[in-house]
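User: I'm writing a short report section on ligand binding and want a predicted complex to refer to. Could you take this sequence and zinc ion and write out the structure as tokens? A short remark afterwards would be nice.
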Amino acid sequence: MPEENVHPGDLDDAEKMYQLGLSYLYGTDAPKDYAKAAECFKASCAKGYMPSRRELGIMYASGQGVEPDMQKAIRYLGDAADSLDPSALYHLGLMYEVGTGVPKDMQKAVRMLAYAAEMGFPGADVDAERVDAVLTEQRNRNLRARPLLKLQISDVDVEAACCKPMLDALLAQDIVFIDSFKGPALLGEDKDGMDAVLDRCPFCGAPVQIVPRDKKYRSDKRINPHVGMT
Ligand SMILES: [Zn+2]
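Assistant: Sure. The structure tokens for the complex follow:
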């Protein structure tokens, strides 16, 4: 969404260049020409106009109008995502989901897609739900595969359950992992049914331990024959 008449001087020109770039990109007010679109975005980028950085990032990722260059794509999209551009967050989120030009990171993907969805980027909610469903499935599989000994969470998820009632509560999502402003935590209910951060298991009393993410369990492959059994 262009902000009309907000930026003085250079940024005004940069925005006009951006709009012209969009015209070439979509063939709206000008014949479709990806190379020209890229030139416009580059000129606009040089003046610091962030939406052009996002468009250029997408073009470098797809190779439309420019030589494909993943490093540039990630850098440009990353800059735009840092400035909370919903479209950049969305595209970068999808790249993290698949591992295109970046190490595959589903946790990062779901955060970016959910953020884009929150800001109203069309379709991002569906993608966020899809990645979230995969992560939930994976986590549930991991939890079932692990011995019921300790209640452990990492910075991104629940890693292990302490007892069968806790396992069931986690699988049913009655108790959930949250990344709170105080750091990772488990959220359940207190005696009055109000949301409460748990410092121990309400069933067996095991304390919540914070541990490093266990990479071994991040594999998509089934690594334990008992996985999937309830
Ligand atoms: Zn327990």
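A remark for your report: Confidence is low (pLDDT under 50) at residues 1-7, 217-230. Residues 146-214 form one domain.
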